[in-house]
C-alpha cells in the first residue's frame, strides 16, 4: 500500500502544460503555464497578479493526447511574485465546465 503524508483532501500533481485564462468579467484571454493541479485547486504562472477572491475561467491543455483539455471556473487564493517578474497564481476550483 502506498503511504500518503500530505494533509490535503486531494493529491496535488506537478504538471507543465499550457493554460489560457481570463477574468470572469472580461473577454480578454491570456496564456500561462499550469504548474500543479489537484481535485480542488490549480496553480499557474501568469504575467500579472490577481487579487484573492477574483473569479476566473481557465482552460488547461495537457501535452499528451490521452488526457483531455479541462475548462474550470476558479477563485484566486493567492499570488506569489517569482524571480523572473511573473506571478504564481494559486486558486480553488469552483466548478468544471462540461463539454
Secondary-structure map with pairings?
Layout: E1 13-23, E2 30-37, E3 41-46, E4 55-61, E5 70-81, E6 87-96
Antiparallel strand pairs: 1-2, 1-4, 2-3, 3-6, 4-5, 5-6
Task: Explain what the structure shows.
This protein is mainly β and 99 residues long. The protein is 0% helix and 55% strand. It has no helices and 6 strands. The protein has strands at residues 13-23, 30-37, 41-46, 55-61, 70-81, 87-96. A hairpin with a 3-residue loop joins strand 2 and strand 3 (41-46). The radius of gyration is 14 Å and the shape is globular. The protein starts with 12 loop residues before the first strand and ends with a strand.
Fraction of residues in H or I helices: under 10%
Largest sheet: 6 strands, antiparallel, barrel
- Structural class call reads mainly beta
Order of helices and strands: EEEEEE
Computed over alpha carbons, the radius of gyration is 14 Å
Can you count the beta strands? 6
Mean pLDDT across residues? 88
Gross morphology is globular
Low-pLDDT stretches are none
Q: Total number of helical segments?
A: 0
Distance between the termini: 35 Å
**How are the strands of the biggest sheet laid out side by side?**
1-2-3-6-5-4
Query: What proportion of the residues form beta strands (DSSP E)?
Result: over 45%
Amino acid at each position: 500500500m502506498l503511504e500518503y503524508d500530505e494533509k490535503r483532501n486531494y493529491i496535488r500533481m506537478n504538471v507543465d502544460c499550457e493554460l489560457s485564462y481570463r477574468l470572469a468579467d472580461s473577454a480578454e484571454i491570456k496564456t500561462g503555464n499550469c504548474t500543479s493541479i489537484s481535485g480542488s485547486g490549480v496553480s499557474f504562472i501568469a504575467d500579472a497578479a490577481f487579487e484573492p477572491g477574483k473569479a476566473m475561467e481557465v482552460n488547461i491543455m495537457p501535452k499528451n493526447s490521452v488526457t483531455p483539455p479541462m475548462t474550470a471556473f476558479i477563485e484566486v487564493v493567492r499570488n506569489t511574485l517569482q524571480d523572473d517578474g511573473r506571478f504564481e497564481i494559486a486558486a480553488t476550483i469552483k466548478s468544471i465546465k462540461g463539454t
